[in-house]
Write a structure and sequence with these properties.
The chain is about 70% helix and about 0% strand. It is an all-alpha fold and about 290 residues long. Helix 1 runs parallel beside helix 17, helix 9 runs parallel beside helix 11 and helix 9 crosses helix 16. The longest helix has 26 residues.
Length: about 290
């Protein structure tokens, strides 16, 4: 239980520091190598398998619903066929091996073995103790997995739980706001914080015509202007979505408390910056261009 109220947006700032140390895995050659060894050579097949494996050998509908912003046609090209190539159990073991290799490569052995890493794992796991399963399918599936023994993998596991907990809540809010999967991508990109259109089109399975049609729908709602920028109403909607996501995601950070959140954020910011400088993410991944 916390005894000190959190500063405004402290939970969001902590999430923004911790989450890249989870999501770097999806851009890692280590994950591609491990899943290729299982027979999953497509980068999309590897992503769908790695992220959905905790749910078991699910079908395309479940992946489309929980991942939200992918074209169902793209998902259905790979799911459930991936499970004929590799079992969820084999994928989970490969994913953990890839997380180990990725963190060691990006952060270095000194960080991996440091007292700070053990401290961060303890703090992040403590925060997850207040996460809730109800209405959060991706989080709930991941929460059923065992916590790895090694501190850097326990930290990665906790970062994954915190990411999926926040993401599940955010998806519910997108549905409530009447933003379909591509409208959510387009409006996020227009805010300057989302994935660049070229990456969204290439990795999420949408076409340029799909993108243009989503822009037109947002213009009809007066959320986007003729130049493709957010209107005042669009900006306010995106702001409200983030604030409401913070509200739905407040429990783990309130449970950890102000001092714990501050310390976890400080540790994760340093490692996030190290990982980014080490090339964890493509340089053109984010932005409006």
């Amino acid at each position: 239980m916390t005894t000190t109220s959190l500063p405004q947006r402290a939970g969001r700032h902590c999430h923004n520091a911790v989450n890249p140390l989870h999501s770097a895995l999806y851009f890692s050659p280590d994950l591609g190598r491990e899943l290729a060894a299982l027979g999953l050579h497509s980068s999309r097949a590897a992503y769908f398998a790695a992220r959905s494996a905790p749910m078991g050998a699910v079908g395309a509908g479940t992946v489309t619903a929980t991942f939200y912003n992918f074209s169902h046609d793209l998902v259905a090209r790979h799911v459930p066929a991936i499970w004929e190539t590799a079992s969820p159990e084999a994928v989970l073991a490969a994913r953990l091996r890839a997380a180990d290799a990725t963190l060691r490569r990006l952060l270095g052995e000194d960080v991996i073995a440091s007292p700070g890493m053990a401290e961060a794992a303890e703090l992040a796991l403590r925060a997850t103790g207040a996460c809730g399963r109800s209405g959060r399918p991706l989080y709930a599936a991941h929460a059923d997995l065992p916590v790895p023994e090694e501190p850097h993998l326990a930290f990665w596991h906790a970062a994954t739980l915190l990411r999926e907990h926040r993401g599940d809540g955010h998806v519910a809010l997108l549905v409530g706001a009447g933003l379909d999967p591509l409208e959510a991508l387009v409006s996020h990109t227009a805010s300057g914080r989302g994935m660049a259109p070229a990456w969204a089109l290439r990795t999420r399975g949408w076409t340029e015509a799909d993108w243009s049609a989503a822009q037109d729908r947002l213009r009809d709602r007066e959320l986007l202007d003729a130049a493709g920028e957010l209107t005042d109403a669009g900006t306010e909607l995106r702001k409200t979505l983030e604030e409401e996501t913070d509200r739905l995601d407040r429990a783990p950070y309130e449970h950890l408390g102000a001092a714990g959140v501050e310390r976890l954020t400080a540790l994760a910011v340093e490692w996030r910056n190290t990982a980014v400088l080490a090339g964890a993410f493509p340089p053109d991944l984010f932005g409006k261009g």
